[in-house]
Amino acid sequence: MERRMLHSPAVNPISRTWTRRSRGFTLVELAVVVTIVGVLAVIAVVGYRRYILRSKITEAQDVVSAIKIAQEDHRAERGAYANIGPTYCPTAAGVSDLKVGWDPGCSGGVTTWNALPVHVSGAVQFAYATTAGSGAFTVPADTDWVTWGSPEPQHWYTVLARCDLDPGGEVTMLVASSFQNTIFSHNEGQ
User: How does pLDDT run across 135-183, given as a tens digit for each residue?
Assistant: First the structure.
């Protein structure tokens, strides 16, 4: 029997050339990797943007709910809802990425938010307004997209929150009232 000796790639010159080429990447392989990384980056950016928008909407929902609770407490104590007014507070809020500290002394046009103690921790993204009345209901401006249902002729209130989450697009609004437990939202910045 004859034994043959196998040559290692380092000894065989043909094998050595092939070994050197296998250490690098081809242009096609690099293009595939760059494409995959690009697709993953786009997915990550879109997911992050949705997460940030959702957190801003959640802030508005929480504050609107707090205002609704404060309105019901006010009526239970005083027999009527607090009419803060149609002017949005804090006045500097509602701009895309600007957060402003809550100011209970801010005037809504009729009275200040001190009449309706709303406790907000930290700065707010949205600007808020709440109107109230007794008798005939007045539909707030820019809320033609809300289904108001059957307003009660006695005491009522509305709560509005607005912010320009999508600069150049429509303003994002959340609306609530004493007529329904639902918080309506319009154009959530997407």
Answer: 777 777 777 767 766 666 678 888 999 888 777 777 888 888 888 888 8
123-124 and 127-134: which strand pairing? Answer: unpaired
Alpha-carbon distance of 147 to 36, in angstroms, equals 45
Residue 177: Cβ within 10 Å count: 26
CA–CA separation, 144 and 174 (whole Å): 12
Contact predicate 51/43, CB 8 Å? no
> Is residue 5 in some structural domain?
no
Rounded distance between C-alpha atoms, residue 36 and residue 53, angstroms = 26
Q: Which residue has the tokens 């609530």?
A: 176
Q: How many domains does the chain have?
A: 1
Q: Considering the domain boundaries, does residue 10 fall inside one?
A: no
6 part of a folded domain: no
CB–CB of 173/185 below 8 Å?
Answer: yes
Residue 116: alpha-carbon gap to chain centroid: 25
| Residue 159 near residue 71, CB atoms below 8 Å | yes
Within a domain: residue 169?
yes
Supply the pLDDT for residue 21: 52
What residue numbers bound the domain in which 136 lies? Answer: 27-186
